[in-house]
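Sharing a chain and its predicted structure for anyone who wants a worked example. Both blocks are below, sequence first, tokens second.
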Amino acid sequence: MVKITIGNSEKHEVSFDYSTMTGTVKILVDGKESSSSKVLFIGHTPFILQVGESEKHKVTIELDNPLFFAFRGSNVKILVDDQLVSQDHIGGSMWLLIMIMMIPVIYILVYFVATFFLRNIR
């Protein structure tokens, strides 16, 4: 989760949370959910929102999902009024890599168990 505080006289906390496993994005402003969605595409995804009442700010959150090696996580840039204020790396779960590596192991295990039972049925 990436958090920033914006504003001079009117302070707001903006939080960005992204799950690399589910693709779920949640944006919170002052602890309340402002936006949530699923990121289904690989590549650059911007989220734009306006924060503040008397002191308005344009907040742009840019999420970059890698095409290859998705288990490494994603890069996040937060711009306030088109000025870069935060850059972070989130995610990086090794679970995706482990799951991909387990597919052939599960396949081989199922194959041997199935052939063992089929031989014993006759």
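Comments welcome. The chain has a mean pLDDT of 82.
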